[in-house]
Amino acid sequence: MKLTSVVALAIVLLVAGLVIYPATHLRAQPASLSSSQYLTFGMVGIIPGQQARLNALLLPTGGPIIAGGSCEVTFTILSDQGATLASATMPVTQNQSVQFDYPALPLPIPTSGTMRTEIRGTVQVAFTMTPGSTAAAGPSCDVVPTMEIVNPTTGQTELVLENTRPIPEVIPLTAMH
Q: Looking at CB atoms within 10 Å, which of 12, 62, 127, 161 has the fewest?
């Protein structure tokens, strides 16, 4: 009887450990983004005097990028209604990061009310080739994105978002015919 109780307790503890340990470690790992994918951050509010900053770190690929090829990141800031507020595309080099600030200049702080604006950021990465270059199948750019809310006056980061969701590719209706 005691042996059965001990075995049952050991199994319960083992199962609990297998459930709790991975869950705590998964939250700490930021998502990465491979070529030709979009990721979106959740909605976040900013007030005049703050900036949203999208960052993308290009992880090393273990070898050089194919000659004639490069990685580009497109950052987009969207309103709560899905309208594009700002966008920028820029090259990124292995083991380095690029950033995009919105708004580029801090807005003045209003004298009445907070005038909070809800926004979200998206990040897309693409492997591009210069004309005349050829590449082996499947080169990719592995990017780790983050989104910050920053006080541009002090340079202090007030919030960091790491969790993202993939955005499915949209197929134009004209391609369906």
A: 62
